[in-house]
Write a structure and sequence with these properties.
The protein is α/β, with parallel strands linked by helices. It folds into three domains: about 5-160, 3-Layer(aba) Sandwich (Rossmann fold); about 185-340, Rossmann fold (3-Layer(aba) Sandwich); about 350-475, Rossmann fold, CATH 3.40.50. Helices cover about 35% and strands about 15% of the residues. It contains 17 helices and 16 strands. The strands form three sheets. A six-stranded parallel sheet has the order 2-1-3-4-6-5, sandwiched between helices. Strands 9-8-7-10-11-12 form a six-stranded parallel sheet, sandwiched between helices. Strand 5, helix 6 and strand 6 (about 150-160) form a beta-alpha-beta unit. Helix 14 crosses helix 15. The chain is globular and about 70 Å long. The N and C termini lie far apart (about 45 Å).
C-alpha cells in the first residue's frame, strides 16, 4: 500500500467515520484512499467551515473531529476553526497536504511552513517525515487530542511522501486514563466546604465532559450549594433545579456575580480562566478558592487557591459525594434562592409580549427555549447576540447550548449546526448568528436535511417561528 492508504487505515483504526474538508492536488492521494475506506468525506465549501464542523463534532461526541485541507491557502483557512477548538477544549485532528519535500528548502509556489503556523494554536503539530512513522504519528495525535484538557492536533503529509510504498500496520486505538486525586486532598477540600458559611460552586467547561455533570448535580442536591455556570458549562446543572444560579461571564455586574460577592468560598470545578477572568469575580483577592480540575490551576494574581484537587473530575466529585453522604449537611442559602427567584422573573418578564416588530431579544430567547426540547441543541455565533443567549437561554442538559468562548471566533454557528445535525440527527438544531457570522454561502448544507434560513437582525427572528411551526428540524437565523 502507499502511505496515504496507510494513513487512512490508521484513521479507521482510531474509529474515524467522517472527515470534513476540501480536497486539493497535494492531498489527492489521501482523498483517493478515502474512497476505498468506510470513512465519509463531507465536502465543505470553505476550510474554515470544515474546522468548525470538526470542532462541534468533537465537542458533542467526545471523540476527535477530523478536518482536511490542502497546502498553503487551504491550510491557512483552517487556522481560525482549529484555534477555536483548541481554546474551547474540543478534540480535533487537522490534516493538511504539503508540497513535495524536494522543493521545501527553497522558494516555491504555495509552500509555507504550515506546521510552525499551527504550533501556537494546537497541542501538537508535526509533519510526517517518513511513511513508516504514520502509525505512531496518528496514534499520538489522537491520544493527545482527547487527553485532558482536550484540544487540537495537526498532521501534515507531503505530496510525494503520501505516494510512497510502505509496509506498516495501524496501531490499536489508545485513550489515556486520567490519574485520580489523593484521598487527603479530597478530605482537605471537604473540610474547607464544611467550614464555609456561604460557599458557591463555579462550574466551568470541564463540567460538561466525561459525565462530570452527574456528580456535580449530586453534590449540589445533597449540600444545597448553589451552582453558577460559565457560558460553556450551560446545562451542567439543570436550569429547573433550585441549585442552579444560571450563567456568569457577561463582563459586567449581574445577579450571579452577586452570589460570588456574597460567598466566602468559591468551589471552582472544571473552570478555565480563559472563559471569565478571576479578576472580574475576585477583584479584592479575598475569596477562598478550592480548585477541582484535570490540571493544576493557572497562576493568576486573582486566583490564589487554598486547595487544588487535580485529576479525573468525575472521580474526584464522586469521592466528595461519598464524604457528603457519610457526613450529611445541607446549608440553607436564602440569599442565593432570592437571587434565583429574581433571575427567573427577569427571564420571564417579556414572555407575554405581543408578536410585534421589533421583537425583544428576551422574547425571542424565551420562545426559543419553549420551542426546543431538553436535548435539542442551540448554537450561538459570536457577537452582541451571544451575550443575550448567555444570559437568557438556560439548559436542562450539558452540551445543548454551544457557545465559543475561548478564542471566540465568528462564523462558528452555522457549520457547527450542520455538524450537530450529523452527530444527533434525531434532535432539533438551531443556530443563531449575527451579521458577520451568517455567510451561509461558505458552508455546504446540501444533503444534511432541514432548511437553512438567514436573517441579519434579531428583529427578523420570526424566521425561527416559521421554521418551527412548519416542522423543520434545523434552521438558522
Amino acid at each position: 500500500m502507499n502511505a496515504a492508504e496507510l494513513f487512512v487505515e490508521c484513521l479507521v483504526a482510531e474509529g474515524v467515520t467522517r472527515i470534513f474538508g476540501v480536497p486539493g492536488e497535494e492531498n489527492a492521494a489521501f482523498v483517493l484512499a478515502l474512497g476505498d475506506s468506510p470513512i465519509e468525506l463531507v465536502l465543505t465549501r470553505h476550510e474554515q467551515g470544515a474546522a468548525f464542523m470538526a470542532e462541534v463534532y468533537g465537542r458533542l461526541s467526545g471523540e476527535p473531529g477530523v478536518c482536511l485541507a490542502t497546502l498553503g491557502p487551504g491550510a491557512t483557512d483552517l487556522v481560525t476553526g482549529v484555534a477555536d477548538a483548541n481554546m474551547d477544549r474540543a478534540p480535533l485532528i487537522a490534516i493538511t497536504g504539503q508540497a513535495d519535500s524536494h522543493r521545501q528548502h527553497k522558494e516555491s509556489q504555495q509552500y509555507m511552513n504550515v506546521v510552525s503556523m499551527f504550533e501556537p494554536v494546537t497541542k501538537w503539530a508535526t509533519p510526517i517525515r517518513n511513511p513508516e512513522d504514520i502509525p505512531e504519528v496518528v496514534s499520538k495525535a489522537f491520544k493527545l487530542a482527547v487527553a485532558e484538557k482536550p484540544g487540537a492536533c495537526h498532521i501534515e503529509q507531503s505530496e510525494n511522501i503520501a505516494s510512497m510504498t510502505v509496509d506498516s500496520k495501524p496501531f490499536d486505538a489508545q485513550r489515556p486514563v486520567q490519574a485520580v486525586p489523593a484521598d487527603e486532598v479530597i478530605t482537605h477540600a471537604w473540610e474547607c466546604i464544611l467550614e464555609a458559611e456561604s460557599p458557591v460552586i463555579l462550574a466551568g467547561n470541564g463540567c460538561v465532559r466525561r459525565h462530570t455533570s452527574v456528580e456535580l448535580r449530586r453534590l449540589a442536591k445533597s449540600t444545597g450549594i448553589g451552582v453558577i455556570n460559565t457560558f460553556m458549562a450551560k446545562g451542567a446543572v439543570d436550569r429547573r433545579s433550585n441549585s442552579s444560579l444560571f450563567t456568569i461571564g457577561l463582563q459586567a455586574r449581574d445577579y450571579p456575580a452577586l452570589a460570588i460577592e456574597d460567598a466566602d468560598l468559591v468551589i471552582a470545578i472544571g473552570y478555565d480562566i480563559v472563559e471569565y477572568p478571576p479578576k472580574l469575580w475576585n477583584p479584592n483577592k479575598d475569596k477562598r478558592i478550592v480548585h477541582f480540575d484535570s490540571l493544576p490551576a493557572e497562576v493568576d494574581e486573582f486566583y490564589r487557591t487554598e486547595v487544588e484537587v487535580v485529576g479525573d473530575l468525575a472521580n474526584a466529585l464522586s469521592r466528595l459525594n461519598s464524604l457528603a453522604q457519610a457526613n450529611p449537611f445541607h446549608k440553607e442559602h436564602a440569599g442565593q434562592m432570592a437571587l434565583r427567584e429574581t433571575m427567573l422573573k427577569d427571564f420571564a418578564e417579556h414572555s407575554g409580549d405581543a408578536d410585534e416588530s421589533p421583537i425583544r431579544p428576551q422574547k425571542v430567547l424565551w420562545e426559543v427555549r419553549e420551542a426546543l426540547g431538553s436535548e435539542d441543541i442551540l448554537l450561538s455565533d459570536v457577537g452582541a447576540h451571544k451575550m443575550w443567549i448567555a444570559r437568557y437561554y438556560q439548559c436542562d442538559e450539558p452540551n445543548t447550548c454551544l457557545i465559543p468562548n475561548g478564542f471566540a471566533a465568528m462564523g462558528f454557528a452555522l457549520p457547527g449546526a450542520i455538524s450537530a445535525s450529523i452527530v444527533h440527527p434525531d434532535r432539533k438544531v438551531l443556530a443563531i448568528t449575527g451579521d458577520g457570522g451568517s455567510d451561509w454561502r461558505r458552508h455546504k448544507c446540501d444533503g444534511v436535511g432541514g432548511r437553512w434560513l438567514r436573517a441579519d437582525r434579531v428583529e427578523a427572528a420570526d424566521a425561527i417561528w416559521a421554521a418551527h411551526r412548519s416542522g423543520v428540524g434545523e434552521s438558522c437565523i
